[in-house]
Specification:
Length: about 230
């Protein structure tokens, strides 16, 4: 899955060197980022004209915190490849509302996202757009659901404070991406993955809205596909 996903990235940057990539965090894209770092070190990839925008960030969180997505992205990708510009919502800002407005403006100024990478939560979230009766179009400060807090608690050590809110891009930015690449990995995701192939929009599964986008590729590992 990671190798095939890296091929999609490689094709994108070869066709359009100044591509804007939408990037994701979590355990799912780590294999892809490793593969991109490997290909870059072998001289097979060049992101020197490309930009990136991450989906989300905990709020509040220090950039130096090992669980911040700032730290994650530098560790797994940005320290190893040569993007011209990288952007992540600022988990340290004193003014999250303004940060959301500014983040959307930066994505727009960059011309929108060419290739949006997404993972999926056990509850069907994309970015930190959690199941709800309404979905936000713009970047926003959101409460994390118990399901997400529980899923991510494994990364925080005991006694460490886990943020319960996050900054996330909304469906406006996701849907304005020209292409979407959704990665699903692990047996734990088999159930939610199966729902995406029901040919139905589930209002309580944010990822099912992606069925409305004209250019979505879903890649799964065997464990996720066995549902
Ligand atoms: P995971 O997270 O890859 O760590 O399962 C995916 C997500 O929550 O979007």
């Amino acid at each position: 899955m990671s190798y095939a996903a890296a091929d999609v990235f490689a094709r994108q940057v070869a066709q359009k060197p100044d591509s804007v990539f939408g990037l994701a965090t979590g355990s799912t894209p780590i294999g892809l980022y490793d593969e991109l770092a490997k290909r870059y070190s072998e001289g097979k990839l060049d992101f020197s004209k490309a930009k990136s925008f991450n989906l989300d960030e905990y709020y509040p969180i220090k950039r130096t915190h090992e669980q911040s997505y700032y730290y994650f992205m530098n560790h797994y990708l940005f320290d190893k490849v040569n993007f011209a510009e990288t952007h992540i919502p600022d988990g340290e800002t004193d003014n999250p509302e303004q940060e959301c407005v500014d983040y959307d403006a930066k994505i727009k100024a960059a011309g929108g996202v060419d290739l949006q990478l997404l993972g999926i939560g056990f509850n069907g979230h994309v970015g930190f757009n959690e199941p709800s009766s309404t979905y936000m179009m713009r970047t926003n400060l959101t409460d994390l659901t118990n399901s997400t807090l529980e899923a991510n608690s494994r990364f925080f050590s005991e006694g460490e404070i886990q943020p319960t809110t996050a900054l996330t891009i909304g469906f406006g930015a996701i849907f304005s991406a020209k292409k979407i690449l959704l990665l699903i990995s692990g047996a734990g995701k088999a159930e939610i993955a199966k729902k995406l192939f029901d040919d139905k929009i589930y209002t309580d599964i944010p990822a099912s809205l992606l069925l409305l986008h004209p250019d979505v590729t879903v890649m799964m590992d065997k464990a996720a596909a066995e549902g």
